[in-house]
Specification:
Structural class: alpha/beta
Helix content: 25-40%
Shape: globular
Amino acid sequence: MSHFPKMSLRPEVEDYLRASFKNEEMITALGVQEAERKFEALLNHLSHPPAFTTVRVNTHLASVKHVKDLLLEEINKQFNGLSVPILQHPDVQDVLLIPVIGPRKNINKQPSEVIVGPHCGSAVLRGAHVYIPGILSASKFMKAGDVVSVYSDIEGKCKKGAKEFDGKKVFLGNGISELSRNEIFSLTSPLKYVKRGIGIRMTEPVYLSPSFDNVLSSSLFLQNLPSAVVSHVLNPHPGEKILDMCAAPGGKTTHIAALMHDQGEVIALDKIPNKVEKIKQNAALLQLNCIRAFCCNGKRALGKAEHGQGGPPFLPESFDRVLLDAPCSGMGQRPNMAYTWTLKEVTSYQPLQRKLFAVAVQLLKPGGVLVYSTCTVALAENEEQVAWALRAFPCLQLLPQEPHIGGEGMVGAGLSLDQLKQLQRFDPSIIPLKDTDITSVRDARREDMIWLANKDCIGFFIAKFVKRESF
């Protein structure tokens, strides 16, 4: 059952996305009505959080069992004794799954209101507290310690510092204010040092999911299930030299290093300096020493290597494996109630991805593996890119993926059925939205919960290639 409105897009973006989901191949396979139903179901799913919170255990420092036991204690404490099961994924064994309880409909709304921005609202729906920068509006007389109702301004129309807001908003739950309204918004506040701290501590969220603020930070990494699958599909081995072309904030980079037992070399690139620092911080936190991060636009990663530098640019055929987790339109992220990008912004990613892909192929050794992934549902950035790559680079061949827990690729790009089966598309619209309460979670069979976790996740895409020879 849909609790929130379907994801809102600009009309031209919705038409663009609908056309790809109602392409000729899809209409032939499903019919017009079923293709339209599937598209509408996707928009409904994207505005809701996934059915599970997933965390990846840093197996370089701790065993999955040990972290699972610690996490059970932490969640029991956060949920005031409410016992929620934690499952180890059978096919992605360094991943733990925590069922999300909700939407909870018996929460009494408070007269004192706080409005947060859409990004903050999405984080709250996945277990976060409200941090001060995310607060847009607070009731006039709100004091520290007040119980307040938190809403998300899903259209981005609330002005910072407003005392009330009558625009389109959705209820996220109740919390306790850590500061008064004046302390949050006053420029002369003596509490400047906490301006990035917690503003509202959520106590009754609509979706109950654990908070991971400073929780087992060196032992686990909060990561969507498909994002954890990617590194396993890449299948890195100790001693190899691996490139993560668009690496920030380092989730996949650190996962690759852990799977290599910190033996070998993982080169991580990002073009934004503070994001490169974040990669380095995560590598240090997780105690992974084989990672080297550089500030470099992936499009410029190929060239004559500078003597003794060891960083970019790199000579052709320098890497055993390359991960291109490409910049994308991000239309698979959940929850997202309002997608505000223009059609020009959305369509700008396909040519960028192709430029990066061309560099990746040249940097890969013959016999090496290239994995391409995105967190979008757009056909143009996924299956169409695979079809283009196979035409543009005859040296590439698609490989089957392990583990393969998502669905096969979407028709519409002219790929064969065998090729589509080798792709991995995570499409949450294939199952109905459902409410989850603690009783249904406790009564559910383990295999049914794993199946649900595999299906009801973010929208994501993975393709795996081998480079058969030089070109």
